[in-house]
Structure formats: structure tokens, C-alpha cells
Amino acid sequence: MIIILILSAFYHFYLKPPSKTERDGVKDEDIAEIDSLIVYPVKSGRGIELDDAMVSRKGFKFDRRWAVVAKKGLKRLNLKDEPKITHIIPSFDYDNNMLRLRIGKESKVQLPDIGVPLEIDEKTLRTWPHVENISFYGDFADGRESQLAPGDWGYKGTPSDWVSELVGYPVHFLQFDPVSSKRIAFPIFKPPHDLSRWEDDRQKQLNSVTGVEFQDLYPFLVATRESLAEVNEHVQKAIKEEKFRYDKVFWSRSDRDVSLPIQRFRPNIVLRSRKVQDGKDKVARYAAFSEDSWETVWVEAEKGTLPIHLVARCERCLLTTVDPETAHRDPNVPLAILRETRARISQPGIKSRPSPCFGMYSIPEEPANGFLRIKVGDPVRVRWRPFALDDEVEAGRRQVREVAPVSQHKVLKK
């Protein structure tokens, strides 16, 4: 059965020429721009919002280059396993070639700040303790036990000791080993509709090994401000109506904003609509969750155009229930709300049950010179999927409706 599904998908997406019906709905629109760029140097640590960032085939430079791995069983740790990791606050110190690390004030454990080298030559890296075959989703990664950067630190142990004291048990603090085997991203579940007509080299590049570092699956996660706003509307309504079991003490604090920051979902690129005047008001040019209907976005950067292909939905897990500042874990917010309002198929042909989804996993094409700088405010052109390949839009048994004033795809709620 699995073989039949794989062969059917291969025929449908790669061999079969697209019919007119399959092309219906394809439309390019200049309707978005970059709102935020966020890099997460330490896997599950705090993100760093950047004004601009360098993009390569494997995503942002330094994204998830470091990770925390339990010494027992070599289990890679994320917020789902160990919420205290979010107390690690990184910052870039390019002048001194280091990633500075401090512990957030919400943590019960407080330690002196430390720093680890940003760029390290291969010869030195090979002298660091080697930790092999850390299991990820479908493949493995190697790491090197990171060492303190040169400096007069108030902490005399290793970075691994520092993180071990924070979480309360022995862990490795690893830097990704770039000389180990290149990691393979997950399959492309939503390929561009015209992939079969691409030049061979371009097809091969999209399907080739991306070489991600300690990311779980793909180089990027793309989301929109409009989608976050809709989720927050549902969160506020659910809490007001006490629709789900939630931590009433946490959410009832007078200084607590009853909304979720975008960092709760850990995207790399956040887009916002380029507003259009409609009478006295400016309105968004696309609906919430339109990113689920986009197959490609093009960032029009100062020195080139960066195509990014949105290839799979991001199925959300308990990680989203952890507050990125306090490490507080809620029993349901926002996962139960997403499960009710955004249950979708994330892996067609493999997983048939709808799951709570937010954001789109994405793969950038390799820039001409290997790297391209993009920045907040850069305009973004989007391409809508054909109706027949877009499960957000009803076609046949589903019905397509217009979104005023410009965009053609309507996000439907189940």
C-alpha cells in the first residue's frame, strides 16, 4: 500500500503534465513583506530578532547550530522535554567572535554569563569531544562538545556543566559538527505544481540534501502576523469562555497579556500583509493562514531575489504550550485551540489524521553566490497553489470564495 502511494504521488507531482484544471487558481501577487526575521542559535533557547540575515541553502547562518543533549541515552532535548532550556538567552558578539549566553531572570537557577566561539576552524573543532549519532526525525547528526570562548569568565566549568546546572541533570552542550554527514530534510509534501517543467539542475537542487544543522526537519518555518492574530482571537475567546482547562493563575495575572507572542511558534520568517486602502481603513490583502495556500514566495532583496518553497505544514506539539519567557507550561493553550480550529493533514500519503498545524516548513533555493542578505521590510511576492492541489480551498465538492479586496483564496475553517 505504501509503495502504491509513493508511486502515485511521484506520477502526480513529477511525471503527469498539469492539466488546465490543475493550473486554475495559480496566481502571483505582490501582497506581503517581511515583518520579522528570527534565528534560534540554541535549539529551544530564546530566539534573536534580526534586522537582516544571511540566507544560504540551509537557512539562516547560526540557526540551531547548538543543541542540548541529555547524556543519558543521547536524547536531544527541546522545550517539550525540558522547558528550562528557554531560560538560555543568546546574543551575537561578532566583534569578539562569540555567542554570549545568559540565564533569564525568570529562572530559579542563576549562573554567571558565559560565551562560546561563533566561528571555529576545523582543526580546533576536531580537538573537542565528539558526540555521534544523535537521533532526529529520520536521520542523525553529530556534534562537538562546545568549549568556553577566550575571556575572563566568572564561571570555571564547561558550557555543558553550565547547562547541566541550569536543567538539573547531566547534559552535553553541543555545536553542530559540519564535517559530519549532511543531514537530509523531510520529504517535500507540497511541491511546486510546475516542478516537472523545471530545468533538471533546479529540480535536483530542490530535492537534494539541504545540510540543515540541528533543525528538526527543514531549513525554515514561515508564518504570518495575520495567522497569529487569528490564533490569539481564539485564545482570548477560549479563556474568556473557559472552553478548555487552562492555568487560571498564570493567565489571570494583571500584568499578563492574554495573547501569544510569535516566538511561541518559533518561526524564522514572519510575513505581514502590505495593506491596501479601503475607504478610511487600511486592510490586509490576504486572510489568516493564507501561507498554507502559497507554494512559493519570492523575497525581493536589495541584491537579488530569493525563492522560498513552502513544502509542508508544521504539525504542532506540546512545545507550543511552553511560554518562551517563563518556561511555564499550560495544559492546553494553544494546542487544544489549534486542534479545534486548525486541524489539517500535515503529511499527505503518510499521516491521514488531521493534526493541529501552524506555519509552513520551507526550503530556500541556493542564492547565486551561496548567500543572500534579506531584511525586515523587504517586499515579498507570493504564488497561490492551483485549486486542485490546495486543500485549504474547496474545489469540486469544495467551493472557492473571494477575499476582499485583492486576494483570491479564502481560508476555510472546519
Automatic annotation (TrEMBL):
InterPro entries: MoCF_Sase_C, MOCOS_middle
Domain MOSC, residue spans: 182-383
Name the record gives this protein: MOSC domain-containing protein
Pfam families tied to this protein: MOSC, MOSC_N
Matches recorded under PROSITE patterns: MOSC
Recorded GO MF terms: catalytic activity; molybdenum ion binding; pyridoxal phosphate binding
